[in-house]
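Weekly sync notes, structure subgroup
Attendees: PM, AL, DS (notes)

Item 1: joint prediction request from the bench team. They want all two components modeled as one assembly rather than separately. Inputs as received:
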Amino acid sequence: MSPSTLDELIDALRCLPGVGPRSAQRMAYHLLQRDQRGAARLAHALAYALDVLRHCERCNNFSETDVCARCASPQRDRSLLCVVEMPADLAMMEQTHAYNGLYYVLMGRLSPLDGIGPRELGLDRLIARATDGEVGEVILATNFTNEGEATAHTVAELLRTRGLRVSRLSRGVPVGGELEHTDSGTIAQALVERRAL
Amino acid sequence: MSPSTLDELIDALRCLPGVGPRSAQRMAYHLLQRDQRGAARLAHALAYALDVLRHCERCNNFSETDVCARCASPQRDRSLLCVVEMPADLAMMEQTHAYNGLYYVLMGRLSPLDGIGPRELGLDRLIARATDGEVGEVILATNFTNEGEATAHTVAELLRTRGLRVSRLSRGVPVGGELEHTDSGTIAQALVERRAL
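Output from the run, pasted for the record:
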């Protein structure tokens, strides 16, 4: 006897990552009962984003135009290409104000257990982008997780065989970090990758 | 340089309860990157539910019609009115197959700390519904939480002064429950509310 429109909404909310039947129900009640304006805004933002957003032809990030503003900018150093996993990683790199090259956003990482191999991740597109003749160095800024490291390793192999210079963000003790509170694996890496002064 | 359409979607997702900036971002990426069909379905289900769903004039539950099918059914015992907090509670009551009366769904509970008093909860509508002349007994089935108990207490006062019989679900040891694994507060209540055999 529960209205089917409500059931459909609850079911549709479950497409959100990490949302099970209970929280989908809670969300539906909340939207319909307490925040109809927010719900209308969400419905519109979703439909509009699906309509308007695509992937930038050059960096693969979400964009409202075929080539995003960053890739089209003449102020950027076209000889540098930084490879990140997600748009949020790109945003973090930008926040450093220490990089003025271009990006390639993988929109994921290699994850064999989830069936995401080089083909699913579209590494051929990255290779095509990196071998455009303008790029001289590719900086791998994937995460320092197992999957991120594996992704960096694979990408490095693919690009080195094509004559590109490939580098990776350094590992080490965080700025402001105290050795006493740093895990030993990080310290070990900081020792291996120690820098001559 | 992040596209504003994406930012708007991320911001709109934050109207969902329990969703902060991080998970809103994760949800937006997931929907756009991995589940565009689910996203389209969600946008449509939201817009449709906002358009179609209203509150049943009699029981206050979500309904696609002015009076829901349950309230309109001639098979239901109109002398019994069960008061629950949320539609999910109504669904649990129905699953018992032990109740054939009608319902009133508060769509919340008294919560002074959140500014939800008798007026915000619309208890005047419940009183109008319960004093229609057909209802003989009101069964309070709000939760046995502090707020649910306070709500039951207030509703009981309001209805008793209007000459209605008011009852409350019993508290006690759950069916199949072992005393050893039941909290002492529940056992104390089961003792106070012990039943003559």
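Discussion: Chain A touches chain B through 54 residues (CB under 8 Å).
Action: AL to compare against the crosslinking data before next sync.
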